[in-house]
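Here is one chain, start to finish.
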Amino acid sequence: MTQATTTESTDVLLVGGGIMSATLGAMLTELEPNWNIILVERLDGIGQESSSVWNNAGTGHSALCELNYAPLNPDRTVGTAKAVKINEQFQTSRQFWATMVEEGKLGRASDFINPVPHISMVFNDDHVRYLKARHQAFKQHKLFERMEFSEDRDQLAAWAPLTMRGRGAGSVAATFSPEGTDVNFGELTKRLVQHISANGGQIRTGTQVTNLTKRSDGTWAVTTKNRLNSEDTREINAKFVFVGAGGGALPLLQKSGIPEIKGFGGFPVSGLWLRNTKPEIAEQHNAKVYGQASVGAPPMSVPHLDTRYENGKKSLLFGPYGGFKPNFLKQGSLFDLPRSVKADNIYPMTRAGLANMDLVKYLISELMKSKAQRVESLQEYYPTADGDDWELVHAGQRVQVMRKDKQKGGVLQFGTELITAGDGSIAGLLGASPGASTAVPIMLDLLQQCFPNHRQTWESRLTQLIPAYGRALDTDAALADEIMGHTAGVLGIQ
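Its structure:
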C-alpha cells in the first residue's frame, strides 16, 4: 500500500460530488457551521456523473406522471400510497431549496428549476381505463387535486401539441398536472457545493478514495489519491463518512467491511436518449409526457418525451433506451460488476438474476435496436418526428440494488437503499430513481439514523429550512396550500 504523504482529520468526509453528498453537506453546513467538512470527487468537476443534466431525465419526481408509482391492484383499484409518499418527499426537497434561495444561498431558482407540466399519456383501451381509474383515485388526495383527465383530442393537443400532430385513429387519453417541474440536478449540485465551500468546507476534485479502515477509536481512516499527482496521497481521519458515490458506492462500502453491506449486490443498467436541440421544435413542446413501460422494462426505462432546460436553453429529450455495460459509473471500469461479486452476495445476485430474465431479454433487445427503430419508438409520442433532427446521447449509469431475501434468496430492488453502520459512523446510498428528487428526505433519514443525539438541537433549524418538517401535506389541506404556495412562489413554479 502506498504510504500517505499527508495525514489530516475532519468531522465529516463526503465521498462523491453528486446531488446526495451536496445535499447532506449543505444541510450539515446549516446545522453545524463549525464542523469541518471535506468533499472528495473522483472526476475533475462537481455533478458530472448521474447528477449531470444529460445523464438523467431532470424530472422533479412527484408521481404526477410516472405510472409505475401507482400499480393496478388485483381488484382493479389503483394503489396510491407509493405515489403520495414520493410526492410528499419531493415537497420536502422543494421546501429546502426554496429556503436556501430565500436566504440567498443558491442563487436564482430558475437556473436549476423550471415549471414544466407533467403529463401521463396512453394509447389503447386497457391503458385508457387504467388512467381514468388512476385519476379517480388520485383526485381524492390533496397533493394531486389539480390533475386533469381528458380523452378529447383537441384538449390533448392544447396540452402537448407535438404528441397529437399527425396521430392516427385509436384510443388516446392523458392526465395533465400544471405543477410539474424540470430540474437541472447538475447545476443544483454545483450551487449546493459552492455553499459548502463558501462556509469553509474543502472541495477536492480529481481525488479518489482507495481504502476505508475503521480505527479503534471509532473514526475512519480513509486513504485518497490525487489522480493528477500520484505523489499526493492522503489519509483522512474522519468522525463520519458518507459514501454518496452513485454506482461507486457499493464497492466502497464493501471495502469498509461493515456487516450491513453483506449480501448486497448491484446490477448496472445503461441508457441512451434521443435529443433535439432545435429551438423551433423545442418551443412547440412544454411538458414531460410519460407513458407505459414496455413489458420487462425497469421502471427507470418508462418512455417519455421531455422538455429540458440547460443554462436557460430549451431542448427536447426522448427515451430512455435501455442498455447494459458492466461498469457502475459512466466513467467507470468494465471490471466494476465482476469485482463487486463477493462470497456473501453471489447467491442473492444469482437468484435475483434468474428471477429477472425478462429484464435481461429487454436489455438485449434494446441494445440491438437501430436508430430507425429508436425513432419509431419516438414517433409513438411524436408522430411527425424527423429522425434527422435527433441525436443519440448516452445517459448516466444506474446500478439497481440486488439484496438477500428470506423467501426468494435474492431480489432485484428498484428505488434507493440507505445503508448505515450500527454505530452511525458511516453511511452510503445505493440504487437509482427517484433518488435525486428525494435527496432531502433521504438525508433527513440519514441524520436521524446517524446523529440521533443531535435531533433536539437541530430541530429548530430544520423547521426553518423545511417549514413542514415532520408533518404531512396530503392530510392537511390548509398546511399544503400555505407551504406549496410559498415554495412555488419562491422557486418561480406553479
